Amino acid sequence: MKNSRRSFLKLAGISALGLGAKPVLNAFASSDEHGPEIFPNQEALTAKRWAMVIDTRKFESEEDFEPIVAACHKIHNVPKLKEKRHKIDWIWIDDFKHVFTYQEHEFLDDRVKHLPFLVLCNHCEKPACVRACPTRATFKREDGIVLMDFHRCIGCRFCMAACPYGSRSFNFRDPRPFVEEENKEFPTRMKGVVEKCNFCAERLAVGKMPACVEASNGAIVVGDLHDPDSNVRDLLKNNYTIRRKPYLGAGPAIYYIV
Amino acid sequence: MNDKNKIITGLIIFIVIITFPFWYNMGKASPVPEPKLTDKAKAAKECVEPKEYMKVEHMQILDIWRDSVVREADRVYINEKGKKFNMSLSTGDDSCMGCHSNKADFCDKCHDYASVRPYCWDCHIEPPKEKK
Asked: Taking CB atoms and an 8 Å limit, are B70 and A205 in contact across chains?
């Protein structure tokens, strides 16, 4: 009995020594070999939690939305497909009653009733699409952006079924022939993958604002929701804003001033 | 026991068919491919990593690059010699295709030989083909 306890303690001691030595060994191993390093761009725009505020009062007619949608679809090589069920959209417009389901009523004021609203991926706090994706192709970045890794998408479309906002489109056919003007700086997609708005992650990474923001003449603002002094927090503090289907608890990060 | 001739003819036909691929390809063994460097690559002298490493591991590097860029939002790669690259397959001057813009004479030379067909080009846009 005594003996076995002794040997157990010895063993435990040796193991503990081994564990303690590992970092030291690692340090040795890395000190003589100077491997490659990988890090973000210095000029990248960052936030603790990205969010967007759309001031719908600054839009007067349907034509006002066109340059915004066009800017996004052009830089991301989004194809223009005529047939409704094949359509691919990253950002588009829809009526109040469709956008803000259950928040409409018979006597809505004329502006809200007749003016379309911009819709896009809501980059939810608790994204249903991320939970539905079996390959983790859709994931939420630490800064709140819900992104797709197209390389991993197997086209199962669970995410499309999960998304309560219809923010996702499926490539039923090869999109290449329907891209009007190819932007060489961004890959297209291929038949059999899902796609959606990426909050212009590729532009933020090089210090540029999202394309819709740039094309909106100040009607769309993005910023850090967790920074009390940020532009979006300022807008949210001083204006009444609504979000899409808040009762679902997904926590959308796109706010609308109506 | 009178079928000896039939059996032998049958055997000969069988052997001929079975060995057909061998003598059909005789003397036609394709030479080991020699990927051509563009003038721009020649001027740069060195790839992202040493040539021997690139030859064997370039698909690993691409895999690391794409995961870093898409999933970690890291876009800068600094190799052992301290040279900086903007991690990209097909976008920008220091992307793979920025230097190796002659895809047909470079990447495809090896890939055709090895019968690999990376599907990257279904989405990533190839550099425009040089006019000859």
From this structure: no
